[in-house]
Amino acid sequence: MIDSIKREAERRSITRLCHFTPSRNLVHILTGETGILATKHLQKNERSVFTQTDLERLDRHEGYICCSIQYPNAWYFDKAKSKDILFKDWVVLFINPKYLWMSGTRFCPRNAASGYGRGIVEGEQGFKAIFADAIPGAYGITRKRSPNHLVCCPTDDQAEVLIPDQIGISDILAIAVPSETQAKNEAVRLDILGISEDKYKFVVAPDLFNKYNLSNLIRSGKRPDERPWKVGEEL
Length: 235
Prior knowledge:
Layout: H1 2-11, E1 17-22, H2 25-31, E2 36-37, H3 44-47, H4 52-55, E3 64-69, H5 74-83, E4 90-95, E5 106-108, E6 121-122, H6 124-129, E7 134-136, E8 142-144, E9 160-164, E10 166-167, E11 172-177, H7 180-192, E12 202-204, H8 211-219, E13 227-229
Parallel strand pairs: 11-12
Antiparallel strand pairs: 1-3, 1-4, 2-10, 3-9, 4-11, 5-6, 5-9, 7-8, 12-13
GO molecular function: DNA binding; glycosyltransferase activity; nucleotidyltransferase activity
Keywords: DNA-binding, Glycosyltransferase, Nucleotidyltransferase, Toxin-antitoxin system, Transferase
Protein name: DUF4433 domain-containing protein
């Protein structure tokens, strides 16, 4: 089962998972030894760092970390950002895709919170269901794969992957931001806090932060523009 998921992921050229979070959480993630922790495993003092959006789990899977395949769930991402009126800077973390075929990972072909998590399934069946030709969604709307749909992307933009317990810090491949300005600001903050630049890589990818642009690109078979950014470099 695990091997079959890996083969299918490689066939679809899936190179990463995505997890979005307010940028202020970067310090906690990059300075600790635990990487990204599921809500259930956050200590009381750690919970104070995260917003209510981070801690809310309508899918009833507090022991899991919500991710998406290849690109962020930009629709829920937009909703989460709108709830945080004080902190407007968010990032998307690119995660090693190996978690797709690790034991315990679960899948949902639509937003995992729908039906309080009733659509969440573990294993090959759950993984393949994400790429079905048509997926019934909210409000009676059925999401369908377009003729040019990117092969690596789920049928429903809001499909989710739930990873149990923890994502190791070494499995964070890069940090995506919407602009070079934010990349510079994040780098300065991390430098002030003594976090070495060899612990992170930035990617400027504005379309990942725009739900309409991202969805249209995926369904037209086009990959969003992504540009690596390093401290001291100009795009």
